[in-house]
Specification:
By secondary structure, this protein is mainly α. The protein has one domain: Up-down Bundle (Rhopdopsin 7-helix transmembrane proteins), CATH 1.20.1070.10. Strands 1-2 form a two-stranded antiparallel ribbon. Helix 1 packs parallel to helix 7 and helix 6 runs antiparallel to helix 7. The structure holds retinal.
């Protein structure tokens, strides 16, 4: 059947709770992130506020879609007292909601960084188009592939995965170059944070690939344990690539704002940068 791994296995109460709990943490964290980004808007100069707005949009779409995912999990599986397991009831569960969330968030996350980088105005739309387009293409290919995770995990899933890797490498190379160039012109603290963002980006975005290949891992790949494992990996990747990434980009924007003479309460210490930078 073309459906997700979860539907092909049954869960012990512990496994059911582990998945349901981490899905709950997932959307709760994004709602918390939503509050944080709304409240911290004032910590950046007006020219960087569109970047914070993008974090707000990312948080809201992720929180709602992850909530939908959590509800879908709860609806799909029912407790069977006979076997003492959670088994598929009248509905099925779809991991696909994740990918639909990525379709919104991936292009936003990739182009959001442009606000704190110095990119010539005439190049801006070109980069938006390349990164946003390649990001969306990667998600669509991955989305199609994930339908094959039960019928043909190593064949079809792998091929869609390889296809998705091409746009992934393309936009990662551009992102790496643009953010790398920024290390020479960003003021002290902003450059330090940008260095962290680059490695966070590499780590967290690659974690999605690790989660994606879990169903391919031989016998283990098709078990309830594998379903638990990949849900945790996806959630960790979500928190790192959206919430922590957004917080760090905000730090870069605050450091730039202060270096440019904008007064931010509580961040006066960043002013030293101006002298160094
Ligand atoms: C897939 C398929 C296998 C190949 C590659 C993939 C990459 C996925 C990535 C997803 C990032 C998602 C983010 C979501 C935020 O909401 C599709 C798993 C390369 C990098 C950042």
């Amino acid at each position: 059947m073309l459906w997700n791994l979860e539907n092909a296995v049954s869960f012990s109460p512990l496994q059911f709770d582990l998945i349901s709990n981490v899905l709950t943490i997932g959307y709760a964290a994004h709602f918390a992130g939503l509050a944080y980004f709304i409240l911290s808007r004032k910590n950046v100069a007006p020219r960087y506020r569109a970047m914070t707005s993008m974090s707000v949009v990312v948080m809201l779409s992720a929180a709602l879609l992850l909530l939908r995912l959590d509800l879908s999990f709860g609806e799909a599986f029912v407790y069977d007292p006979q076997t003492q397991m959670y088994v598929l009831g009248e509905a099925t569960y779809s991991h696909g909601y994740r990918y639909l969330n990525w379709l919104i968030d991936v292009p936003l996350l990739l182009t959001q960084s442009f606000f704190v980088l110095n990119i010539a105005k005439r190049d801006l739309w070109g980069y938006r188009f390349k990164l946003g387009g390649a990001g969306a293409l990667m998600v669509v290919l991955g989305y199609v592939g994930q339908f094959y995770e039960v019928v043909d995990p190593l064949g079809a899933l792998l091929w869609w995965g390889i296809a998705a890797t091409i746009p992934f490498i393309y936009f990662t190379a551009i992102f790496w170059r643009l953010t790398g160039e920024s290390l020479s012109y960003l003021p002290g603290q902003a450059a330090t944070t940008m260095r962290q963002i680059r490695y966070l980006f590499l780590f967290s975005w690659n974690l999605y690939i690790v989660a994606y290949v879990v169903p391919m891992l031989g016998d283990f790949g098709q078990t309830a344990e594998a379903a638990v494992t990949r849900t945790y990996l996806f959630t960790i990747a979500d928190v790192l690539s959206k919430i922590i990434y957004g917080i760090l980009l905000g730090k870069v924007a605050t450091a730039r704002s202060v270096a440019e003479g904008f007064e931010v309460d509580g961040y006066e210490w960043l002013k030293d940068d101006e002298l160094k930078g």
